[in-house]
Give the backbone structure.
Amino acid sequence: MGFNDFIRERRYLTNVSPATISWYTHAFKWLPCESPTQEQLKDAVMRMREKGLKATGCNAAIRAINAYMHWSSGAGERKCGPGGQHPRIAQLKEPENVLPTFTAAQIKQLVNWKPKAKHFHQRRLHLLTLLLLDTGCRITEASKSRMRGVDLDNMLLTIEGKGRKQRMIPFSFGLRRALHRFIADFERGVEILCRELGFDAPPRTLHAFRHTFAVNYLRRSGSVFHLQKVLGQSTLEMTRRYANLMTEDLQAVHQKVILLGP
């Protein structure tokens, strides 16, 4: 058993993320073979340092390599540690640098900055800045966040972190106001676009996109049960409302084609 078997098992049995698979693949490139000796492991670390990797970068690769060495030894679920029987690499000592932070004055400037109304990118940048300051989430977590993970009523944000683990983070009234403004600005932008195209946007414009997708999904012979999954609805109640709209469509068409007349 080698690298491919380890990655295959992690992908399909442990269900690790694509980013973790990439991490393993990159780390294994430092090894000369699939069954390295203790000396070859030490040599791999020295080559990492010669190539300019810092201690933190080396340790990331070392963690992946140690996980593979533990797995290939057949140790199973037993915890891997310094007393293990298989070859392994000790973590390098990392420098304890002072963590960079914004000052109180800088935070105030960031929060009070007023993006230009017509600049969507500025408004999005401001919202992202407030989100990072208010929740402490990683930038990768913030960039993947979607409105479906935002509970404005209870002021909770559901995000997906490392290892595809979800967690809920509370946020402030200030961030909720910013989210409401962002959504309202986006809706106004869509309404303006519709008027420029020569028609009025439907009521509850942003929800109308979702309703439009659902109805047309069913019109094109999509399954009600599949639609429920696509929309992320826990019950069929709302999905049945879309199906009822379809019934009205069928009745309208039937009135046009019946032979017996009205």
The chain has a mean pLDDT of 83. The beta strands are 150-151, 156-160, 166-170. The radius of gyration is 27 Å.
